[in-house]
Amino acid sequence: MEKWYLMTIVVLIGLTVRWTVSLNSYSGAGKPPMFGDYEAQRHWQEITFNLPVKQWYFNSSDNNLQYWGLDYPPLTAYHSLLCAYVAKFINPDWIALHTSRGYESQAHKLFMRTTVLIADLLIYIPAVVLYCCCLKDISTKKKIANALCILLYPGLILIDYGHFQYNSVSLGFALWGVLGVSCDWDLLGSLAFCLAINYKQMELYHSLPFFCFLLGKCFKKGLRGKGFVLLVKLACTVVASFVLCWLPFFTEREQTLQVLRRLFPVDRGLFEDKVANIWCSFNVFLKIRDILPRHIQLIMSFCFTFLSLLPACIKLILQPSSKGFKFTLVSCALSFFLFSFQVHEKSILLVSLPVCLVLSEIPFMSTWFLLVSTFSLLPLLLKDELLMPSVVTTMAFFLACVTSFSIFEKTSEEELQLKSFSISVRKYLPCFTFLSRMIQYLFLISVITMVLLTLMTVTLDPPQKLPDLFSVLAGRGGSSL
Amino acid sequence: MAAFTIAAGTGNWFSALALGVTLLKCLLIPTYHSTDFEVHRNWLAITHSLPISQWYYEATSEWTLDYPPFFAWFEYILSHVAKYFDQEMLNVRNLNYSSSRTLLFQRFSVIFMDVLFVYAVHECCKCIDGKKVGKELTEKPKFILSVLLLWNFGLLIVDHIHFQYNGFLFGLMLLSIARLFQKRHMEGAFLFAVLLHFKHIYLYVAPAYGVYLLRSYCFTANKPDGSIRWNSFSFVRVISLGLVVFLVSALSLGPFLALNQLPQVFSRLFPFKRGLCHAYWAPNFWALYNALDKVLSVIGLKLKFLDPNNIPKASMTSGLVQQFQHTVLPSVTPLATLICTLIAILPSIFCLWFKPQGPRGFLRCLTLCALSSFMFGWHVHEKAILLAILPMSLLSVQKAGDASIFLILTTTGHYSLFPLLFTAPELPIKILLMLLFTIYSISSLKTLFRQSFTVIAQAGVQWH
């Protein structure tokens, strides 16, 4: 494209914001004995480097699963192993078995932050750039603006570079999957998505739309001819990639089962901490977590999740299209987030990525949702002393979206894709013509509420229950809209 | 927040650029800061806790007050805000005190003062005419100039990482230049006089101002061929200019004159004992001179021309600032550097006097004065290159020839600032920001002058 230099500048801005955020504190900094996610990642490097593969997921005297035991699929373990080799080269003390517990130093922080940046640079950022370049029917300037907004999304930056995680790897692979499947490179797309699932099992939130879209494509090509061939090829790709990733763990049945037990801890309960999810909000009024037995909770969440996402998936099978695929990704991920079992607040990122993808289609609603999603992460970020970066990156993101898409001018009913909804309401209430104005006011109210709540949580020291509740409700409100 | 929404929402690109860079500056708050941070904390303490008579005598800390009085008053005003952040920083004995609140206050004060710089850039953009260029916003000279000034790499890392207050000072300078462009000469002169009493490094460009104001303001008309018309000399204008300068200086130095402290103030302002080169050599002529001297002395020792006992002990690269002597080449005195500087700026001054080309000519002369002083001055800091880069930005968006010189100057000048940030966490930041600025400046100026390049190329083809 002719404006390659503008795209380079956008990437450079994204990288600069990421690195400056990483100068701040991380999760669990200076907080023994358990520390936080940063220590968890360091510990996994220690475990994967010093112990044989067979012991990675098992409890033993060398590997105490209570202290940050591995609970992600094998690809995360391999990535940790790779980082551990580099760490050994620089300073073996960082990953020495047992003695490196709680190791904290400036040099080590620099090393860990660099690993996140490199992973991001190799996987997520190229995917975003390529995705924006492949968007159809929009001008080059809009493509670049789109890339800027996606790269500046605060939630991912704050969690990966502040709190400390590697979400950019799994989200990046998922994005490569979306790219592949949208551009008709189905095998590569499904391979990429399998890698995503094998990096973090939460990517299963996105699996149904992939499945339905690819199935729909096979049906469209006709199940007797090319469609069947495609189906077989896809199945083989998926099976092959899973086998490759899980090879060391397929040797014994007990290994596979133990890994699965670590990945899906059904013993833990309907939800943990406070998360912007239906069950958590419901829990405030009716303590379902304590009332209902475990297996009933499981079945209930399962049913609600699948009931809410069924319509979109069926439509996708019958009419596979790129646009439909992206919107189905959003709705499926949202259903899982709202209704599923053991959802963490960080899982909102799995919903945010598909919303970023539809930023160019409905900029106003997407921006609103992304702002609210970042806000819902605030309690977590405040614990890590990331208030300043959160506020600044949120404002930067808002600025980027407003100038790129002129979102306040695009709130007519047609652009909000709510035309059919408002027409049907007008059948009963003929004076319901002010939908767009109402939505603008709601947006303003929600922004003011978020700002006020932020100020309150910073300046006052009351018990945290009330502000969190509002963040929960705000999250739900925004998402339901 | 409401203003933010409105400003951003109406598509006002200038506000968006200014807001964007301000947010970036906020992200740079936790970065490394140099000893200049302690310098300014100390000055806050001195001006807050001591009476005026002590300001230029206080020496508890090694970082004594060495800026003119207006800057001291500025620190005094700041200190009254500082006391709400952390009272402890205002204690003169609290050396190297840097609590998180102190850091926050100091960083925010720099970011806040940059408002003046933003306003000055806005005024400068009004002086640029964007005729004959495309309709696209990003290709307009105003847009490019705004980015080159607001997002200037050198200013970002010197002010918001290394820690200094150059933003609003350059704002004053750019504002005075803009006023001269807008033919509001008295305001321009006043602003420059004020600026001189904030930071006297701007003396480097004072000749340009002096000559221009004398030639183009005090002589109200020219002969048809552009040369000077002696009978159009306006005494009123000269006197009013002199009055402005005098009043500003009186306001600034008056209290110290009354206290008989002027010699002390001047010795603090012009510390000639500090040595020919700064600890980190500014890439100027004397750096080459020193290097040549070093090379010759090594060769001389090897070939036994020199007696090792005669070589002075102080090495020039040891990072200490002290007076020393050269071994092979003649030693350089402050007077010698002054003479060299004057010789270097003479051609541009002559041009400004004999063939004035209006404000644009003045701007060229100013840039040349800044560059000459940088090249031949005594104890030049590498940060002084910004004095040449920022005015040059104004020239670069108007002529293709200036643009190519600007690109060379800015790339090398900015790269010479790299040693200022030597810590590992800041390495990616300086590389990323440098790449950002360099790629933007090269590509945007190339796009801007693409048409004129093709015209020149076509003309060249026709000529043959």
Automatic annotation (TrEMBL), chain A:
<feature type="transmembrane region" description="Helical">
    <location>
        <begin position="227"/>
        <end position="249"/>
    </location>
</feature>
<keyword id="KW-0472">Membrane</keyword>
<dbReference type="GO" id="GO:0042281">
    <property type="term" value="F:dolichyl pyrophosphate Man9GlcNAc2 alpha-1,3-glucosyltransferase activity"/>
</dbReference>
<feature type="transmembrane region" description="Helical">
    <location>
        <begin position="110"/>
        <end position="132"/>
    </location>
</feature>
<comment type="pathway">
    <text>Protein modification; protein glycosylation.</text>
</comment>
<comment type="function">
    <text>Dolichyl pyrophosphate Man9GlcNAc2 alpha-1,3-glucosyltransferase that operates in the biosynthetic pathway of dolichol-linked oligosaccharides, the glycan precursors employed in protein asparagine (N)-glycosylation. The assembly of dolichol-linked oligosaccharides begins on the cytosolic side of the endoplasmic reticulum membrane and finishes in its lumen. The sequential addition of sugars to dolichol pyrophosphate produces dolichol-linked oligosaccharides containing fourteen sugars, including two GlcNAcs, nine mannoses and three glucoses.</text>
</comment>
<dbReference type="GO" id="GO:0005789">
    <property type="term" value="C:endoplasmic reticulum membrane"/>
</dbReference>
<feature type="signal peptide">
    <location>
        <begin position="1"/>
        <end position="22"/>
    </location>
</feature>
<feature type="transmembrane region" description="Helical">
    <location>
        <begin position="441"/>
        <end position="460"/>
    </location>
</feature>
<feature type="transmembrane region" description="Helical">
    <location>
        <begin position="386"/>
        <end position="408"/>
    </location>
</feature>
<feature type="transmembrane region" description="Helical">
    <location>
        <begin position="348"/>
        <end position="371"/>
    </location>
</feature>
<protein>
    <recommendedName>
        <fullName>Alpha-1,3-glucosyltransferase</fullName>
        <ecNumber>2.4.1.-</ecNumber>
    </recommendedName>
</protein>
<keyword id="KW-0256">Endoplasmic reticulum</keyword>
<keyword id="KW-0808">Transferase</keyword>
<feature type="transmembrane region" description="Helical">
    <location>
        <begin position="298"/>
        <end position="318"/>
    </location>
</feature>
<keyword id="KW-0812">Transmembrane</keyword>
<dbReference type="Pfam" id="PF03155">
    <property type="entry name" value="Alg6_Alg8"/>
</dbReference>
<comment type="similarity">
    <text>Belongs to the ALG6/ALG8 glucosyltransferase family.</text>
</comment>
<feature type="transmembrane region" description="Helical">
    <location>
        <begin position="144"/>
        <end position="161"/>
    </location>
</feature>
<keyword id="KW-1133">Transmembrane helix</keyword>
<dbReference type="InterPro" id="IPR004856">
    <property type="entry name" value="Glyco_trans_ALG6/ALG8"/>
</dbReference>
<keyword id="KW-0732">Signal</keyword>
UniProtKB/TrEMBL annotation, chain B:
<dbReference type="Pfam" id="PF03155">
    <property type="entry name" value="Alg6_Alg8"/>
</dbReference>
<feature type="transmembrane region" description="Helical">
    <location>
        <begin position="429"/>
        <end position="449"/>
    </location>
</feature>
<keyword id="KW-0472">Membrane</keyword>
<feature type="signal peptide">
    <location>
        <begin position="1"/>
        <end position="18"/>
    </location>
</feature>
<protein>
    <recommendedName>
        <fullName>Alpha-1,3-glucosyltransferase</fullName>
        <ecNumber>2.4.1.-</ecNumber>
    </recommendedName>
</protein>
<feature type="transmembrane region" description="Helical">
    <location>
        <begin position="143"/>
        <end position="158"/>
    </location>
</feature>
<keyword id="KW-1133">Transmembrane helix</keyword>
<feature type="transmembrane region" description="Helical">
    <location>
        <begin position="104"/>
        <end position="122"/>
    </location>
</feature>
<keyword id="KW-0328">Glycosyltransferase</keyword>
<feature type="transmembrane region" description="Helical">
    <location>
        <begin position="188"/>
        <end position="214"/>
    </location>
</feature>
<feature type="transmembrane region" description="Helical">
    <location>
        <begin position="361"/>
        <end position="378"/>
    </location>
</feature>
<keyword id="KW-0256">Endoplasmic reticulum</keyword>
<comment type="similarity">
    <text>Belongs to the ALG6/ALG8 glucosyltransferase family.</text>
</comment>
<dbReference type="GO" id="GO:0042283">
    <property type="term" value="F:dolichyl pyrophosphate Glc1Man9GlcNAc2 alpha-1,3-glucosyltransferase activity"/>
</dbReference>
<dbReference type="InterPro" id="IPR004856">
    <property type="entry name" value="Glyco_trans_ALG6/ALG8"/>
</dbReference>
<dbReference type="GO" id="GO:0006487">
    <property type="term" value="P:protein N-linked glycosylation"/>
</dbReference>
<keyword id="KW-0732">Signal</keyword>
<feature type="transmembrane region" description="Helical">
    <location>
        <begin position="335"/>
        <end position="355"/>
    </location>
</feature>
<feature type="transmembrane region" description="Helical">
    <location>
        <begin position="234"/>
        <end position="259"/>
    </location>
</feature>
<keyword id="KW-0808">Transferase</keyword>
<dbReference type="GO" id="GO:0005789">
    <property type="term" value="C:endoplasmic reticulum membrane"/>
</dbReference>
<keyword id="KW-0812">Transmembrane</keyword>
